[in-house]
Amino acid sequence: MTHATRHSNPGAVYRLALLAAATCGPLLLVLAGCGGAQFGITARRIVGSVDKRGQPGPEKTTFATGDPGVYLWFKYQGASPGSTAITVRMTHKGADGVETTAELARDLTKPQGTVVCALGPPQGEGLAPGDYTAEILGPGNTAFGPKTAFTVSEGPGEAAPAEAPPTPKAG
């Protein structure tokens, strides 16, 4: 389920995608292992690329409008399959001061693993210039750690990485 709201200027709503790797979506969900620990996010970072195995590229905090991707990668542990739900919230504040928020809720199906969220509009379009934050929320909008900030500036961006995540297929 994806939910996006725009406080004004409805044409600038951004999509936040979170899909299982089995569906070849722009978000790779790579989960493995077992565990009985208390739920927690053990690592997180904003990156510009993710390989086919779901491994994140180097951490970045500055992107260009022409960059091929912006991803939130995080590692978690202690999930109770079927009962641990998270929400990934991305907030954008443009030069005009208008704030856009996009959210996605997801039930975690494995006790531990990694998640890669593609942050942004449909493939082939860059994010709008401005300041962004991404955060991971649990039940009752409880934050799992601090917001992760990044900035997008006007520019051509970098070439797409050689091992980009698979392109989603229709159907």
Could you give a short account of the major beta sheet? 6 strands, mixed
For the record, the count of structural domains works out to 1
Instruction: Tell me the span between the first and last alpha carbons.
Output: 17 Å
Give the strand content: 35-45%
Please state the second-level CATH architecture. Distorted Sandwich
Notes on the protein architecture:
- By secondary structure, the protein is an all-beta fold.
- It has a single domain, classed as Coagulation Factor XIII, Chain A, domain 1, CATH 2.70.50.
- It is built from no helices and eleven strands.
- The strands form two sheets. The chain has a six-stranded mixed beta sheet, with no helix packed on it. Strands 2, 3, 4, 6 and 9 form a five-stranded antiparallel beta sheet that branches.
- Strand 7 and strand 8 (99-107) form a beta hairpin.
- The chain is globular.
List keywords for this structure.
mainly beta; disordered C terminus; six-stranded mixed beta sheet; Coagulation Factor XIII, Chain A, domain 1
Per-chain topology:
Blueprint: E1 2-6, E2 16-17, E3 29-31, E4 40-47, E5 62-64, E6 71-77, E7 85-93, E8 99-107, E9 113-119, E10 130-137, E11 148-153
Parallel strand pairs: 5-11
Antiparallel strand pairs: 1-8, 2-9, 3-9, 4-6, 6-9, 7-8, 7-10, 10-11
